[in-house]
């Protein structure tokens, strides 16, 4: 909206993607890693020696659900991103932990859920991906979570089904709404 929400000088920009499997247990781990990762040089110019806390630099956090994107062909799929109504309190809790672990005045953030233009001057460029311990789960568990989320989404968008008596009743051959399944329709429900 043409308004500057936050800005920092030298420091770290954290693009935070929150997924369905993330729990509050991982917040402490991520905060510790973000504040202690050694990406800055020391006074003698030695690279990878100092953390953002060592240098007393700032931290800018931006919530970015697109980091949870899974490509299905060429189309982005975001079903593994935590829904906004859960992700916003999670994100706010993450910010509070950062502020408690460091200096609150050095922690800045964007506007949750807003369309923002983020300008980053990436020094180096250095980009480091940090994942919570839950993100290291095996692919079978991830697939199971994806299937559970897809079932939830289908349940939320599905219209109420017919009663079991109507569903199991034999269909008349002359009934135009009866499906033979010839076109891949395996649904037992009729459109109203």
Automatic annotation (TrEMBL):
Catalytic activities: a D-aminoacyl-tRNA + H2O = a tRNA + a D-alpha-amino acid + H(+); glycyl-tRNA(Ala) + H2O = tRNA(Ala) + glycine + H(+)
The enzyme's E.C. designation: 3.1.1.96
Pfam families with a match to the protein in the record: Tyr_Deacylase (PF02580)
Region (Disordered): 132-192
Compartment(s) where it occurs, according to its Swiss-Prot or TrEMBL record: Cytoplasm
GO CC annotation, single: cytoplasm
Biased composition (Basic and acidic residues): 141-152, 163-176
InterPro entries: Daa-tRNA_deacyls_DTD, DTD-like_sf
UniProt KW keywords: Cytoplasm, Hydrolase, RNA-binding, tRNA-binding
Family according to the record: Belongs to the DTD family.
Protein's recorded name: D-aminoacyl-tRNA deacylase
Organism: Chelydra serpentina (Snapping turtle)
Gene from which the chain derives: DTD1
């Amino acid at each position: 909206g043409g308004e500057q929400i936050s800005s920092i000088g030298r420091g770290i920009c954290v693009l935070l993607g929150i997924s369905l499997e993330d729990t509050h247990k991982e917040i402490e781990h991520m905060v510790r890693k973000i504040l202690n990762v050694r990406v800055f040089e020391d006074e003698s110019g030695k690279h990878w020696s100092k953390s953002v806390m060592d240098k007393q630099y700032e931290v800018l956090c931006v919530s970015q659900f697109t980091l949870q994107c899974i490509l299905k062909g060429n189309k982005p799929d975001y079903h593994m991103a935590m829904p906004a109504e859960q992700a916003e309190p999670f994100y706010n809790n993450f910010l509070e932990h950062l502020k408690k672990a460091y200096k609150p005045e050095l922690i800045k953030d964007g506007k949750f859920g807003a369309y923002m233009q983020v300008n980053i001057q990436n020094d180096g460029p250095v980009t480091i991906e940090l994942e919570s311990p839950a993100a290291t789960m095996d692919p079978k568990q991830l697939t199971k979570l994806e299937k559970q989320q897809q079932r939830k989404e289908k349940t939320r968008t599905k219209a109420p089904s017919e009663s079991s008596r109507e569903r199991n009743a034999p269909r008349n051959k002359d009934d135009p709404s009866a499906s033979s399944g010839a076109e891949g329709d395996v649904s037992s429900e009729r459109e109203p």
